[in-house]
Amino acid sequence: MIKEARAENKPEIMELWKSAYPTRSRAYLSFYFKHLFDEGKCLYLPQDQRIISSLQMQPHVVRFANRKLECTYILGVATLPDYRRRGHMRYLMNTALDELSHNHLITFIEAFNPKLYEPFGFETVYDAKRYTINTHYFEKVNKSGVSHQVSARELSDLYLKYSKHFDCGYVRDIHYYELFMNRAVLDHGNLCVYHDQNHELRGYAVYSENSVEVKISELVYLDSVALMKLLRYVSDGYPDVSVCVSQSEQLERLFPLTIPKRSAMTMARINNYELFNKLYNTKVKTPKEAFAILKRPIFLNEIY
Question: Do 67 and 168 form a contact (C-beta atoms < 8 A)?
């Protein structure tokens, strides 16, 4: 019988996540279970006096075509190795989606294995683009104005300006960015920002580095000056910088011969087509058709 997790179940569920996602940062998992787990709803299956399978439903407000919608992001779909291929995940997913279909219009899930979730009505609606840019493009750029000093309010205000370029994206408030700043540091990464001469925040980059490479996982900027300065600062001492951006950005215009690699990042499911079509005056039958009504690009860079 499916149960809803309580506080005493968190340590065991966290261990389940670790076994199911061995490449996910342990710092990130600790952060998630400390700050975010209780904000969502976790369903699990007990058997043999242990938790054998679980999934998490994380609520979010998403702006979709000038409307704010209560949506859900499903994550942490996990089953112990000895109990896989027995229908436990299918049972949990069907139960969760049945509940969500009565409450939220759209459900999102990370697209790390699209074929696993397509039978449940999910389709990939958002790809990330990864560029590897040689640092000679911006080695002469001045790093002035770049620092690590910023407030959650500044980040929230910047994102509000940036998100006006998109027709679909999470609504991020100050609370989101307070947690965001902590996670950027804990998840083996860092956060740098660029303020212009008027002390206005114009961009930020979340990045991680080791002895051989540096990777930017999120890059938000209002103009090319901010972009170039952030890239110059982050790439200092490296021959290349790896940058993950939204599917609509075309950095090859600034950096010729730099070819992006696309990877599926977010899948979506429309829980109630009748309601969706009534709300948006459409006749869509699939998630891809639903997202095709958007006139501007999508920004769905979250994994929770």
Answer: no
User: What does the DSSP 8-state code read for residue 222?
Assistant: S
Q: In this structure, what token pair is assigned to residue 247?
A: 């599917």
Taking the C-alpha atoms of residue 16 and residue 262, their distance in angstroms, rounded to an integer, is 30
Q: Cα–Cα distance between 68 and 60 in angstroms, integer? A: 10
Look up residue 131 and give its two tokens: 């560029």
Angle between helices 26-35 and 174-186 (to 10 degrees): 150
Instruction: Give me the tens of pLDDT residue by residue for the chain, a chain 304 residues long.
Output: 899 999 999 999 999 999 988 888 888 888 899 989 999 999 999 999 999 999 999 999 999 998 999 999 999 999 999 999 999 999 999 999 999 999 999 999 999 889 999 999 999 999 999 999 999 999 899 999 999 999 999 999 999 999 999 999 999 999 999 988 887 766 556 899 999 999 999 999 999 888 889 999 999 999 999 999 999 999 999 999 999 999 899 999 999 989 999 999 999 999 999 999 999 999 999 999 999 999 999 999 887 8
**Strand ranges for the chain from DSSP E:** 3-4, 41-47, 50-64, 67-79, 106-110, 123-134, 146-147, 168-170, 190-195, 201-209, 214-221, 240-245, 261-270, 298-299
pTM over 0.90: yes
Tokens encoding 260: 């992006």
Helix or strand (DSSP H, E) at 174 = helix 174-186
**Residue (of 60, 58, 78) closest to 69 by Cα position:** 60
* Helix 10-20 and helix 26-35, axial crossing angle in degrees, nearest 10: 150
